[in-house]
Specification:
Helices cover 32% and strands 25% of the residues. The protein has 508 residues and is of the alpha+beta class. α10 packs across α12 (356-368). The chain is elongated.
């Protein structure tokens, strides 16, 4: 396959580009002095009548539609904030400029225009163009105007084209940017400090997940893309920073589906002298604040559900959840009874479970998660699956851990953080033993982190909140790929045929 086969270039457009250059037209200038955006023009002239304005406007954008009517041309010009109609008349522009536009300006081109504003008989605010200039000649064709860009795979693979064609997509990512900005603002006003911790780590930890691995040639050392920033942020708490957070890119070598992408964003927050109750309150306040700021109310719709974020949210222990949705009390049943119940209901993993705590988690995942539609905190997790959480102060075999579920999705995970170095050493050693026996999601043992705890970490509460899923909820998108600008997909050529490239040998 040649290089040109991988491109969307249109021969007719390339020929026009060459002809423009032969005529001495500058097609790709270095700058343009835009005086107003389209939204500013529309706001400024919202009361305009049918007469042309005395004031001149100067703006720029992409051409979306061109409609010829003899000696006049109408076109739609768009920028990041909106669209406006252009009106070009041969008698005003002159024959040479008018024909230049008619012959060479296509949908997709970026131009600058100078003119006056008026309102058409149809009531549309329009720029009466006095002159124009090329700013960028597009040589790839835009999708057909009436149907737009509908193909989902093309939208994800060529997000730039999706953003050009679909106002809804642009609005989704504009809202995502705003949500992250509001999140930062919320934490900054409460005196949290934002830090950056390593993405490449010699030892991965902070979650149970399969990592991505790479190799550093100069150090001759295996490294891992982080699965969580937790252990580094806790080191900062040890060092004396009492309120910290990080908006982190994490990487987990897991399945891809509507709720999972191997590269994802989350915020992790830690505060000294707090516990998991405080972090539940913080999570509740933060998410309610974000929903209210975006929607102006504490409700929104997602995947057919009307979600209500009015506080307080529901809270129940994992035991209570299993009793309610599975109809059993795990802690009063024998292991034989639990195994039989699990096999009867085809609960994945019940064959290998060896403790009541393990069965409790399996039954919760199987019976309960999908039922938790309205914002619900589930708390008090078994110690078996919570190696970084503090032992429960009153319930033997449990930890002070919570997860937040909304619309059946896990949205947040928080602890009273384990700060006993001897207990942490033992828990991570158990995790490492599982890893060595073949558990691909078990954690490694990080002796430097344990050593940091040995210097003393104050009582600390922590929580991690998934940003991508949060954006899904707030924007009403039921697939994570709709809120990731460039979701992970199997590599394909972005050209006309969309065929798969040949695999090449070499180091990964």
């Amino acid at each position: 396959m040649s290089d040109i086969d991988q491109l969307c270039f249109d021969t007719t457009k390339i020929n026009k580009l060459q002809e423009l250059r032969e005529r001495g037209v500058t097609v790709y200038p270095y700058t343009f002095e835009r005086k107003e955006t389209i939204s500013e023009i529309k706001e400024r002239f919202r009361e305009i009548g049918h007469e042309k304005s005395e004031e001149e406007v100067k703006t720029a954008g992409r051409i979306y539609v061109v409609r010829e009517h003899g000696k006049t041309i109408f076109a739609d010009l768009g920028d990041s904030e909106g669209r406006i109609q252009l009106y070009l008349r041969k008698n005003d522009l002159g024959e040479e400029q008018f024909n230049l536009f008619r012959q060479y300006v296509d949908a997709g081109d970026i131009i600058g225009v100078v003119g006056h504003v008026f309102r058409t008989k149809m009531g549309e605010i329009t720029i009466w163009v006095d002159r124009f200039e090329f700013l960028t000649k597009s040589i790839c064709p835009l999708p057909e105007k009436f149907h737009g860009l509908k193909n989902v795979e093309t939208r994800y693979r060529q997000r730039y084209l999706d953003l050009i064609m679909n106002d809804e997509s642009r609005e989704t990512f504009r809202t995502r940017s705003r949500i992250i900005s509001l999140l930062r603002q919320y934490l900054f006003t409460r005196d949290y400090l934002e830090f950056e911790t390593p993405t490449l780590q010699p030892i991965y930890g902070g979650a149970n997940a399969r990592p991505f691995t790479t190799h550093h040639h100069a150090l001759n050392q295996k490294l891992y893309l982080r699965i969580a920033p937790e252990l580094y942020l806790k080191r900062l708490v040890v060092g004396g920073f009492e309120k910290v957070f990080e908006i982190a890119k994490n990487f987990r070598n897991e399945d891809i589906d509507t709720n999972h992408n191997p590269e994802f964003s989350m915020v992790e927050i830690y505060e000294a002298y707090r516990d998991y109750n405080d972090m539940m309150n913080l999570t509740e306040e933060l998410i309610t604040y974000l929903v209210t700021e975006v929607h102006g109310k504490t409700t929104c719709s997602f995947a057919g559900y009307d979600l209500d974020f009015t506080r307080p949210w529901r809270r129940l222990t994992m035991e209570e959840a299993v009793r309610e949705y599975a109809g059993i009390d795990v802690m009063t049943m024998s292991l034989e009874e639990l195994r039989a119940f699990g096999l009867e209901h085809c609960v994945e993993g019940c064959e290998s479970a060896t403790t009541r705590g393990e069965y409790l988690v399996l039954f919760f995942e199987h019976f309960c998660e999908k039922e938790l539609i309205q914002p619900t905190f589930v708390y008090d997790f078994p110690i078996e699956n919570s190696p970084l959480a503090k032992k429960h102060r009153s319930k033997e075999g449990f930890t002070e851990r919570f997860e937040l579920f909304i619309a059946g999705m896990e949205m947040a995970n928080g602890f009273s953080e384990l700060n006993d170095p001897l207990d942490q050493k033992g828990r991570l050693e158990l995790q490492d033993a599982k890893r060595r026996r073949g558990d691909l999601e078990a954690q490694m043992i990080d002796y430097d982190f344990i050593n940091a705890l040995g210097y003393g970490m104050p009582p600390t509460g922590g929580v991690g909140i998934g940003i991508d899923r949060l954006v899904m909820l707030i924007t009403g998108k039921d697939s994570i790929k709709e809120v990731l600008l460039f979701p992970q997909m199997k590599t394909a050529v972005p050209g006309p045929n969309g065929s798969e490239p040949e695999e090449k040998s070499g180091e990964e």
